[in-house]
Design goal:
The chain has a 5-stranded parallel sheet, with helices on both faces. Strands 9-10-8-11-12 form a 5-stranded mixed sheet, with helices on both faces. It is of the alpha/beta class and about 575 residues long. Helix 4 links the parallel strand 5 and strand 6. The chain is built from 23 helices and 12 strands. The two termini are about 45 Å apart. It is about 55% helix and about 15% strand.
């Protein structure tokens, strides 16, 4: 294939030369045709060159857009260029080495530090060889010798464009894989967060574990945001049913944290997530507020069928202080059982409610009622029991003159609430009807009511969870059977599996990870790759056919996932030369 074209010698007074292009240069012409049809997105290019004639020649005599680039500007030296580069953030930098004020080497070092993905072409004369060697050691991508010949520059541009497009596609695959993987659901990740906030790990152990899990945890300041998300009618005695609005808001909320390094999402329990907010001293508060606002906006858009609550701690400057920060957020979040109308709970909002006597007028309930305990029994966790009891004592204790009467009243309320709740979920009163759980006249102090209430509530939650686990086992088996039968369907997803077995995606994700030891998406991927390996070793099917057969529409993405999971490419595995993890 031959093309008629020309090249321009910028240092030869603008002389144009016509020639016949073939081979590699012919492929340039093909690329130009594809680019002109809009097949590729343009990359931003910036030029730094102190010789005006050369700078203008490069700028004016290259048809940048034909080769996949958008010319964004130029400068005569590194000092002038740097602020422009920081603002434009070019994909490609072309720079001379020897320039006044700030030379090319200094500029390259700064760009490499701040924009590591930016490709760099250096322009050098024969007498700049030592400088060019230094630049190459600094990681420049191409070397262009003066005098600059147009077709040589074009050849380099097309080569880099192809490399940059491949890297961009690879990055898209990585991001797609990360989105699918839902890493924050991973049980080991959940366990890691639990060990942080319970103070089990030292700072060095936290840093070491985070690094091994590829979690960037280090920052000057930290905060904890907790948010609870469930259907309004959710009861912990049974798996949460699939509700369209809830599934949609759960998906929208969890998407918030993709690509946000200052916000690290962890699962805390079935209905509650924790966000580790990072930032400097100046922006930790604004990062926290922004996080809460984004969660709130998506939850409020879901309507009244979705129950949601948010609480936060006070920023801390050390990882070792996170347990106290978490304890504060957890204590405040537990107020949702007493103040169900307050969705964003803070220490200040609770104090204001007390100050304005809202506890007396009904916003949070004047009297401590059976319904308060029932609501906690239906959704609360063992970790929240002590916080709930303390709130009850704070909110109603000071309003009763006789401590003995208060304690007996609370004991009776807790007891009958537990009996009523267990009966409603089919456990029956015989499961708790023993002398150990009877309220009696000996309960007359604050400490005794704490102990009694903790005992009864803990027992009721254990019975609730036992009933839920029984149903979970059946539904989890149904979910796994559905995946094993439909893994080759390219549209299979957490949402689709959840809908099939009528479980909330949020609930299914948490239970699946906890019981199986993998996220649901990881299980699907593992099932697909396992079948692909069987086909690679036992059939003559092409890679693209195998990719489609196991549920991947894009054969290149299939190869990416295969290597990510197996440690070798499909072709290497077929030849038996791949070494698996």
């Amino acid at each position: 294939m031959l093309f008629l074209g020309c090249y321009h010698d910028f240092n030869n007074k603008g002389t144009s030369h016509f020639t016949i292009f073939s081979g590699k240069t012919a492929s340039i012409m093909v690329f130009m045709a594809l680019t002109m049809k809009g097949r590729y997105r343009m990359f931003k290019v910036f030029l730094v060159e102190d010789e005006k004639v050369v700078r203008e020649g490069i700028r004016e005599n290259i048809q940048w857009e034909q080769y996949g680039f958008h010319y964004t500007g130029d400068a005569s030296d590194g000092e002038l260029a740097l602020p422009m580069i920081r603002e434009i953030r070019p994909d490609l930098l072309i720079t001379d080495i020897k320039m006044p004020f700030m030379d090319g080497l200094t500029l390259i070092k700064l760009v490499r530090d701040e924009l590591p993905r930016t490709k760099i072409i250096i322009i050098s004369g024969y007498d700049d060889f030592t400088y060019a060697q230094q630049a190459i050691r600094m990681g420049v991508d191409q070397y262009l010798l003066k005098p600059i010949i147009k077709n040589k520059l074009v050849e380099i541009l097309v080569e880099l464009n192809g490399k940059m497009r491949d890297e961009r596609q690879q990055q898209k695959y990585i991001e797609h894989f990360q989105r699918e993987a839902q890493e924050y659901e991973n049980f080991s990740r959940r366990r890691f967060f639990e060990r942080i906030v319970t103070g089990v790990l030292s700072e060095s152990e936290i840093t070491e574990t985070a690094e091994s899990m590829n979690i960037d945890i280090f920052a000057p300041y930290y905060n904890i945001v907790l948010f609870s998300l469930s259907s309004e009618e959710y009861d912990g005695s049974a798996p949460e049913s699939y509700i369209e609005d809830l599934a949609a808001v759960q998906d929208e909320v969890t998407k918030l944290f993709i690509g946000r390094p200052e916000l690290i999402l962890f699962r805390w329990n079935i209905t509650t997530y924790a966000v580790l907010v990072k930032g400097s001293q100046d922006d930790i508060v604004s990062n926290t507020i922004d996080c809460i606002k984004n969660i709130r906006d998506r939850c409020t858009a879901a309507g009244n069928d979705v129950g949601w609550y948010i609480a936060r701690g006070t920023p801390v400057s050390r990882l070792s202080a996170l347990p106290a920060c978490f304890a504060e957020a957890s204590r405040i979040l537990a107020y949702r059982y007493i103040c169900p109308e307050e969705h964003i709970l803070t220490e200040a909002s609770i104090q204001n409610l007390r100050k304005n006597n809202d506890f007396q007028t009904g916003t949070c309930g004047n009297e401590f009622e059976i319904e308060h305990v029932r609501k906690f029994l239906s959704r609360g966790t063992k970790q929240e029991i002590d916080d709930f009891i303390e709130q009850v004592l704070q909110n109603v204790g000071e309003r009763v003159v006789s401590t003995t009467l208060l304690c007996r009243y609370l004991a009776m309320t807790v007891y009958f609430a537990a009996i009523k709740y267990l009966d409603s979920i089919g456990s029956g009163i015989d499961t708790i009807w023993s002398t150990d759980f009877w309220p009696n006249d000996n309960i007359s102090t604050t400490e005794e009511i704490r102990k009694y209430a903790r005992q009864v509530i803990k027992r009721a939650i254990e019975l609730r969870d036992r009933e839920s686990a029984r149903q979970q086992h059946v539904l989890l088996k149904q979910a796994i059977d559905f995946i094993n039968e439909n893994y080759s369907d390219s549209s299979i997803s957490l949402d689709k599996v959840a809908k099939n077995v009528n479980i909330s995606p949020n609930y299914l994700s948490a239970v699946f990870s906890q019981e199986v030891g993998q996220t649901l998406t990881e299980y699907i991927t593992s099932r697909r790759i396992s079948e692909a390996k069987n086909m690679l070793r036992n059939t003559d099917m092409r890679l693209s056919e195998i990719a489609f057969a196991v549920g991947y529409k894009d054969p290149h993405y299939f190869s990416f996932v295969f290597k990510k999971v197996s440690g070798c490419t499909p072709s290497e595995y077929r030849r038996g030369s791949g070494s698996e993890h």
